[in-house]
Structures are given as structure tokens and as C-alpha cells.
Design a protein that fits this description.
By secondary structure, the chain is an alpha/beta fold. It is built from seven helices and 19 strands. The chain has two domains: about 180 residues, FAD/NAD(P)-binding domain; about 120 residues, FAD/NAD(P)-binding domain (3-Layer(bba) Sandwich). Helix 1 packs parallel to helix 2 and helix 5 runs parallel beside helix 6. It is elongated, with a radius of gyration of 21 Å. Bound molecules: NADPH dihydro-nicotinamide-adenine-dinucleotide phosphate.
Length: about 300
């Protein structure tokens, strides 16, 4: 079995940026796209904060451009996902699509990203895509002049509630504690916004709806009182889960499952394995920071290979 010099798992901004740098350095990288080719950005619409796009771009356009750029320098992009790894010795063994292929990789860059968390309610699952969403910037547009709810009390929830208040007539922010975990500045924006009503100490019992989609939510106060709200959209902002299950037990993860890296290097607990992007970053989660960490990982790989192969 031929050994791949640099295997990159994941095709978001971190994976493709790593691929651009690795291919320009003649490391013949192979990218496995994973479950969501192009990553989380393909589920957003406008991107206005990525430097170099004065008129903005879209998530799909940006990811297609990144792929083209990586391929231009010789990156091989394959569809498929990693189902098992053995990182106990180099070259590492990587299983694709439950045994469809097994690969050997001299170095590995993990850029598998993170996925949005849901509450786990059956009714929430039923209305996913017809009123239930985990991305206000993707779907907020459909709720102009309507009523929506956002679940969560962190920065994301406050940011999404504020964003939605710019479109909808009414936004409920459903918070399970009696305080917001978000930064003071973010909290102030929420409290100042007349369209946002914060429902502290409430949990969602059920998302209500009919064949047209979501029509409301049944909430329970911590004192046991039930309350029904009429809404057209139900947004989750309760955090993200890093996509690291396949690496558990082989790499050091933090208590939330994010891959632990040496700050500023992307180096993991296993020599020859790097992590880049949201899979190792619970804080910033931006396309630009993911891209930057992909670049760092590729430069590190280049250095590592030149030291080990000389
Ligand atoms: P956080 O983990 O900070 O917050 C998650 C929120 O969801 C908490 O309020 C938590 O409640 C609540 N929650 C979790 N599970 C449930 C549940 N089952 N039911 C109800 N509520 C639930 O995640 P964020 O995505 O908000 O932020 C992640 C990181 O990104 C943070 O470090 C944040 O500061 C950063 N960020 C920064 C931004 C900025 O500066 N512009 C924007 C967005 C994110 P509880 O408090 O009770 O645990």
C-alpha cells in the first residue's frame, strides 16, 4: 500500500488552506472531504467578514474557490469519511468508509470541524428544516416579520437573537439559567433590543407544529409552570460538538472533546498529527482563524517531514 505523505481529513477552510500550503510545498496532500464537503460554511449564506472580499461572497463560492485553488497545486480531493485510525505508530493507518479502503499516512492534519448541538427532542427532529434550525444567519431570512425563539444563553445565542431581531418582529431568548453566560457587551445588546424578550429559567418541553411547520413551543419554567409561545422558527444556539469521536483514546482531547493542541502550532499529543480549525478551537470558530490554523499545520508538517526524511 503506498504511503500518503500528508493526509488531510476535512474540507472546510482549515483543511483546504492546509492543502494549498502542503501542495505548494510538494507534500502531495490528499484531502478526504468528510460528511459535509466544504464544511460548515456551505450551510451559511453571505460571508462579509473574510478579508479580501470587499463585496462579500457566499459560503459555497468560497469553498468551491478554495478547492479549485488547492487542486491547482496538485491536491487530490477524495470523497469519503474516516471511520477508524491507528495512531500508535507511523505511518498511521486510516480506514475509509467502514473498510472500503485502508490507507497509510506519514503525517495527518485533522480538520474535521464541529457540528451544532440540538436538544434531542423528538419534535425538534421532526421539524428540522421546516422551522427548526441551528443557524440564524443561514435561515433567518425566512422569518422576516415573524416570531422566532432562540435557545441558549451564550455569545452565539445573543448574537443570533440580535441578528434575528433585525428581521423578525419578535424574538424570544430561552435561557435555562437565571443569567446569560454571554459577554457583557453582548448581553447589553440583547437587553437594549425591544424586540427580544428573554425567558430566563425556561426549558423547552416540545416544539409545536403542523404540516406547515413550526407554530409554537411548549416551555417549562424551573418552578414547574408551563407556558406556550407562538413562533414560526425555533433556533438552537447551545454550542457545538467537535467531530472527534474517531480519535478518542488515541489523541488527547479536552473535557468537551476538542483536540488539545500546543498553542500556536496545531501539534497534537501524537507526533506527526496536527489539528486545525474548529476541531481544536471552541472559542473563535471563524473561517479566517480556521484558515490560519490550517496554514500553520501545513508549515509544521513541512518542517517535520524535512527533518525526518533528510
Ligand atoms: P457556549 O457553550 O458559550 O453557550 C452555550 C449556551 O447554551 C449556554 O448558555 C448553555 O447554558 C446553553 N445550553 C447548553 N445546553 C443546553 C440545553 N440542553 N438546553 C438549554 N440550554 C443549553 O456556546 P456558544 O456557542 O455561545 O459559544 C462558544 C464559544 O464561542 C464561547 O467561548 C463564546 O464566547 C464564543 N463566541 C464568541 C462570539 C463573539 O465574541 N462574537 C460569538 C459567538 C461565540 P448554561 O449557561 O446553563 O450552561
Amino acid at each position: 500500500m503506498p504511503t500518503i505523505k500528508t493526509l488531510i481529513i476535512g474540507s472546510g477552510p482549515a483543511g483546504y488552506t492546509a492543502a494549498i500550503y502542503a501542495s505548494r510545498a510538494n507534500l502531495s496532500p490528499v484531502v478526504y472531504e468528510g460528511f459535509t464537503p466544504g464544511g460548515q460554511l456551505t450551510t451559511t449564506t453571505e460571508i462579509e467578514n473574510f478579508p479580501g472580499y470587499p463585496n462579500g461572497t457566499t459560503g459555497n463560492e468560497m469553498m468551491a474557490d478554495l478547492r479549485t485553488q488547492a487542486e491547482r497545486f496538485g491536491t487530490e480531493v477524495r470523497s469519503g469519511y474516516v471511520t477508524k485510525v491507528d495512531l500508535s505508530k507511523r505511518p498511521f493507518t486510516v480506514e475509509i468508509n467502514d473498510g472500503e479502503a485502508n490507507l497509510l499516512a506519514e503525517t495527518l492534519i485533522i480538520a474535521t470541524g464541529a457540528t451544532a448541538r440540538y436538544l434531542g427532542l423528538e419534535s425538534e427532529e421532526r421539524f428540522r428544516g421546516s422551522g427548526v434550525s441551528a443557524c440564524a444567519t443561514c435561515d433567518g431570512f425566512f422569518y422576516r416579520k415573524k416570531s422566532v425563539a432562540v435557545v441558549g444563553g451564550g455569545d452565539t445565542a445573543c448574537e443570533e437573537a440580535t441578528y434575528l431581531a433585525g428581521l423578525a418582529n419578535k424574538v424570544y431568548l430561552i435561557v435555562r439559567k437565571d443569567y446569560l453566560r454571554a459577554s457583557k457587551a453582548m448581553q447589553e445588546r440583547v437587553f437594549k433590543n425591544e424586540k427580544i424578550e428573554v425567558l430566563f429559567e425556561h426549558n423547552t418541553v416540545e416544539v409545536l407544529g403542523d404540516e406547515s411547520g413550526v407554530t409554537g413551543a411548549l416551555l417549562k419554567h424551573n418552578d414547574g409552570t408551563l407556558k406556550e409561545i407562538a413562533i414560526d422558527g425555533f433556533f438552537l444556539a447551545i454550542g457545538h460538538t467537535p467531530v472527534t469521536a474517531v480519535f478518542a483514546g488515541q489523541l488527547e482531547l479536552d473535557e468537551q472533546g476538542y483536540i488539545k493542541t500546543v498553542p500556536g502550532t496545531g501539534r497534537t499529543s501524537v507526533e506527526g498529527v496536527w489539528a486545525a480549525g474548529d476541531v481544536q478551537d471552541p472559542h473563535y470558530r471563524q473561517a479566517i482563524t480556521a484558515a490560519g490554523s490550517g496554514c500553520v499545520a501545513a508549515l509544521e508538517v513541512e518542517r517535520f517531514l524535512s527533518m525526518h526524511n533528510s
